[in-house]
Amino acid sequence: MTGTPGNFTTDPTAATPAVEVAGLHVVRGDVHALRDISLSIPLGTVTGLLGPSGCGKTTLMRCMVGTQIVESGSVTVLGRPAGSAALRRRIGYVTQAPSVYLDLTIRDNVRYFASLYGRGNDVAAETIEAVGLSSHTHHRARDLSGGQLSRVSLACALVGKPELLVLDEPTVGLDPVLRDELWEHFSTLAAAGVTLIVSSHVMDEADRCESLLLLREGHLLAHVPPDELRTRTGESNLEKAFLALVRDEQVGVEQ
User: Fold this and answer.
1) CA dihedral (61, 62, 66, 71) positive or negative
2) Domain limits, the chain
3) Locate the ABC transporter domain: which residues (predicted)?
């Protein structure tokens, strides 16, 4: 482990990381959205991006997929600068707001995105089944619930079989059973070599991740596995562990 108390990171792996961020600083309006963020995410892992609303989770994700203007620093994804044209077919991104065509059916939405990635209708059908929407395939997106729309967006990202999948709070509005099924699917994808970065403000999802990026007010407080966070803070409950980390950071600033 490297870093100082309250700002520690896991040691980088020998292999080329899926995502590498160095000295990243982002200003949005008059707000410093991200402050000197540096991190490295290994290939084929599930990383949780956690923190309260407004802490910078979505901004960091936008930097990774190349849609955010940065003030300074660098973001490298799959060995290339974030936003490179060569990455477009290698990254799947699911935003908080559903990114689907409301006048199309589920099947037509997923088939459309499959065609963009050069995938066939058979892959589209498999992907729809993977997100649990096979019984709704002919329903138009405008008639779906919020949770169903989120799953269609996920299917549209998955159908391209991305190497990196960036998911911005994908389980919001989903029932516990479906949340569990989706996380099982995320684990299966990671086992197949896909790298997943999943943001959430729900701390009970943290144990589903191999490592956690904990953000607060644009600062990266820690990048550690869940059990490491428990050990460092002496708290068995992850939400309490996060709060303990925040308190330690505040003490360090005051000193």
Assistant:
1) negative
2) 2-90+162-254, 100-161
3) 19-242
